[in-house]
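User: For my dataset I need records formatted as: sequence, then structure tokens, nothing else. Please produce one.
Assistant:
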Amino acid sequence: MNPTTHWYAIKTRSEARTQAFLESVGVTVYAPRKDVRKADHSSQTSSQYIIPRVLLMQTSEEEAIRLEKESRGEAYAASPFWIYRLPGSDRIQPISTEEFNLFRLLTTDNPDMQCEVYDKSDFHIGQHVRVTAGPFAGYSGYTASATTSMSLSRSKASAPSPSPSSTPPSSRQSDHLEP
């Protein structure tokens, strides 16, 4: 029997080492990054984690707890991590697929994951929109730019009222927005 997997947020001292450790044992890790211009104002950029010292991993509850203990052992002491738990409890806190999909929508720089509409020219900046089809159906937000293809504003997107598909999108799918 295959155990149910969930997403879990983890705190670590070293994102890169922890991510390498988890991926080496076959765990899916989501660690959103952004390019930031270097402080000396040159044209060079460096890639930084969006949420410092926090990664998300997808695995079963039992495997997550086992890996957390293993990460603090002698063999992996350079990359220990702690799974976020419910306040006042020892139970680890899973992240629902819907919450993870929203987080991914808000943090991705991947153009294949961003929500766009291609055939509406009557939208204006700041207009409230709702996604009616595609992998982010049910989410709502505000238009961020007034070009031929609109983007859902990441800073003001909200969770869906109806539950979207629990399967993360694996290929480019056009989402439909309506005012």
